[in-house]
Amino acid sequence: MIIATRLLGRTARLRWVHLVLGGAALMPYFLLGTVIVGAATGGANVYGSLPLQLASFACALPIAAVSALFPIARPLSVAAARALCGVDPAALADGPARSRAARVRTAGWFTLHIGVGGVISGMTLALPPFAITLVVLPFVAALRDSRLGLPLTDGRAVLFAPPLGLAALLALVCCAVGCGALLARWAPVLLGPTPADRLAAAEQRATELAVRNRLARELHDSVGHALSAVTLQASAARRVFDSDPAFVREALAAIEETTRRTVGELDAVLGLLRQGDDEAAAVAGPGLTGLDGLLSRTGVKVAYTADGDLAAVPELVSREAYRIVQEGLSNALRHGGAAPVALRIAVGGEEVEIVMENPLPTTARVVRPGGGRGLRGIAERAALLGGHAQAGPQDGRWRLSARFPLTEKPANEPGGAR
């Protein structure tokens, strides 16, 4: 049963079809080869001579190899191999062959495919009629009396014809299975990714990861800050609900405005997720000139000082600086509660400096399990801009500082997940 499955199972049948397709692809090259051989032999009848046919076959293979050097040949070969050869799809390369090594390997595969496929296709066309004739020879007198040129048409010798016919069919099947397995073994070698393909794929994965990390930071900073502010406002309103209705109304208005703004930012980022990587890489957002609105809704008193022209800061730097301030305020709200925050942004020379300070909490506050990723996100943003950031206790206060150049310069996104 196992042998029958290997010889006639679905994989074997698909590989046989793949070989026959190779033989069909050989025909234009073979016809061109017959023209060349016919011209070289002074117009001899190529189809009436087996040696000349073999010579035409030999001429066809190098012509086919040259035609397979075009980059488009690899995607076509890979598609056929994935569908019919029964190999791991991941072991084969995607896209056209760009490098010289990839084109040469594709040419080798194509030549092997049509060469072996041409032989198996010829056997598939010729052997079954011959084998069937041998099988029925003892039972059909007309075949024995015809001039077939067979040595088994007389006497007891005719009894050997059916076994020989069945053996010919079995040999055809075994040859097809063996050649199909040969192609399946060589497909990953000749159609697999080259070092250049692996490098291109790694760069593509790094780019996609960088885009996802950037969008993750946008969501973390925007939504995380909003939730911290809403939590603080709701907590304060609950404590004075009966004694200070005016404050409760102000807190609810701040919660409404914060959530409305955050839903808008969330929709914008989710919209980018539905677009291509190029659009997602250019995530838009508020900049330093929008800090007044952020500080008015943050739910904590902020002593804000700005030195220099914030409007002159380039868009990318301004947007990243805004997110750094936003995340710093979120950390202050999360750990310091309603303690006042001192914020200073200085734009001068060729750099931007952000300094944020708030008192250390006198009692331990409950934060979400596992901590957050905000400080790492701040460091990543500063590094993206070619600068640095640090945060920690200093002189009895919590101090966050970030410094980076004004000039927009491309940099690789940090690859770590946030």
Automatic annotation (TrEMBL):
EC number, as in UniProt: 2.7.13.3
Recorded catalytic activity of this chain's protein: ATP + protein L-histidine = ADP + protein N-phospho-L-histidine
SUPFAM superfamilies per UniProt: ATPase domain of HSP90 chaperone/DNA topoisomerase II/histidine kinase (SSF55874)
Listed PANTHER family: NITRATE/NITRITE SENSOR PROTEIN NARX-RELATED, NITRATE_NITRITE SENSOR PROTEIN NARQ
GO terms assigned for molecular function: kinase activity
Highest taxon in the source lineage: Bacteria
Coiled coil: none
Uppermost EC category: transferase
Name of the protein described by the UniProt record: histidine kinase
Keyword Lipid biosynthesis: no
Domain Signal transduction histidine kinase subgroup 3 dimerisation and phosphoacceptor residue range list: 212-277
Residue ranges crossing the lipid bilayer per the database entry: 16-40, 52-73, 107-140, 160-184
Keyword Transcription regulation carried by entry: no
Protein source organism: Streptomyces crystallinus
Keywords: ATP-binding, Kinase, Membrane, Nucleotide-binding, Phosphoprotein, Transferase, Transmembrane, Transmembrane helix, Two-component regulatory system
Pfam family, one: HisKA_3
